[in-house]
């Protein structure tokens, strides 16, 4: 799975910067490493499959995270 670096909007409205991907040391599951662009600017990881999935909002499927700006167009 490839996740582009850049700025994403979570379906609940907050913005995040994807920094890269990593592998879980025990399971080798691909994880997305991302940083909140609000509050304390915390770092987060989430399984890549979950990051890229759709969720249902008001009965409509929408991306959990939607790419809004990818200035370097680098795909991980």
Describe this structure in words.
The protein has 76 residues and is mostly beta strands. It has a single domain (6-69), classed as SH3 type barrels (Roll). The protein is built from one helix and seven strands; from the N terminus they run ββββαβββ. It has a five-stranded antiparallel sheet with strand order 4-3-2-1-7. A two-stranded antiparallel ribbon has the order 5-6.
What is the topological layout?
Blueprint: E1 6-10, E2 15-23, E3 30-36, E4 43-47, H1 48-52, E5 54-57, E6 60-63, E7 65-69
Antiparallel strand pairs: 1-2, 1-7, 2-3, 3-4, 5-6
Supply the number of structural domains.
Answer: 1
Kindly state the mean pLDDT as a whole number? 93
Give the strand order, joined by hyphens, for the main sheet. 4-3-2-1-7
β-strand amount: over 45%
Spell out the helices and strands N to C: EEEEHEEE
Biggest sheet features: 5 strands, antiparallel
> Could you estimate the helical fraction of the residues in percent?
under 10%
